[in-house]
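Example (one chain per record):
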Amino acid sequence: MTYLNTTRWINNDSSITTVDDAISRIISKNGQAIHPRNDNGVDFHDVSVNKVFDETQVGNYLDSTVKFNSVQGRFEKIRAGEPVDTNFFVIVYQVESSQKIYFIINRNTDARRILRSFLDFSGREEVTNYNVELNSNMLLYFVYRVFEGQSNFTYTLASADDLQVSVKNLTGIKGATETSNKLSADGTTISKLISTLSLLLEVKELQQVRLDTSMLKHESINISLNDSGLISIDSNDYVGILENEPNQEKQTRLLLHVYLVVLPVILNEYTDASDEDWGAEEISNFMEKIKNQLINKIDQFDSKILDQQELDFSTQENSEN
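Predicted structure:
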C-alpha cells in the first residue's frame, strides 16, 4: 500500500476570503522562483503549479456545504549543494456556514513554509496548524471496536437521518514500548495474529492505526490515523464511486470525504464513549481480554505442534515396521 500523508491548516489572513483568492495566489507562482524572506531561507526554483479543477467545486459533507479546489505542483530547492525536487498537492476548502478557509497538504514538517511561500504570507500567524486531534487512547478505542465486532459508527444528521461508517478491518498498528522501541504489525488479518495481540500488550502508547472503512458508495477506503494528527489515505486501493476519476480529482474528493465525513463520524462516537464507556476500567478489561486471547492462541498453536509431532512419530514407526 502507498499512502498519501497529509496535514491540515487554517487560514487566518483577512486578505484571503474565498477559495478562488487562495488558489489564484498559489498558481500565480507558476514558472517563477520564490526567494527566501531571510538569509537562512531556501529558494524555490523552477516552480510549476496548476489547478486540478478549472472551476471551484461545491459539495455537501454531513450538514455542511463546502466550496473547494486543489493544486498540484513541484519546485526545486538546493540542499547541500544539490538540487532536490519536491512535489506538493494542496486542497483549499471553505465551509459555507463559517466562511473559514482550510488547506490540506501532502507535506508535514515543511507544510507551513510551503503554504506561506506560495500564499505570500510574511507574518507569523497567517496560517496555523489545524490537524485532527488524536491520541493513544483514541486509537486504542478504534482497535477495541474492531476486535469486539462493533465496527459500525453512526452519525445523526440535522435532518434526523442516520449516516453509518463501517470499519471493515484493522490493517495496521504501530506503537512504542516503555523503552521507546518501535513495534508494528501489518496485513489484512492482523487482528487474528498472535504477534498483534502480543504487540497490543507490550506497547505503552499506540501511535498509528490503519483502518479499511466503507460507507454507502465508498466500498473501501484505507485510512491511516497517527497520534500526531497526520491523516493518510491509499487512493490506489480505493474502491467506490470515485475510482474512475482522474487521479488528482479522486484524491481531492476522497480526502475531503475522509476529513469531513468519515473522521467526524467515528470521532463523534469516541467522544460519546470516552466519558462513560472508555475509561481506565474498560481499557484494563480490554487488555485482559487481549491477554486471554493470546494465551488461548498460543495453547492452540502448541497443541497443533504436538499433534503434528505425534503424527510424524506414528508415521515413522509404521514405516520402520
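Caption: The chain is about 35% helix and 35% strand.
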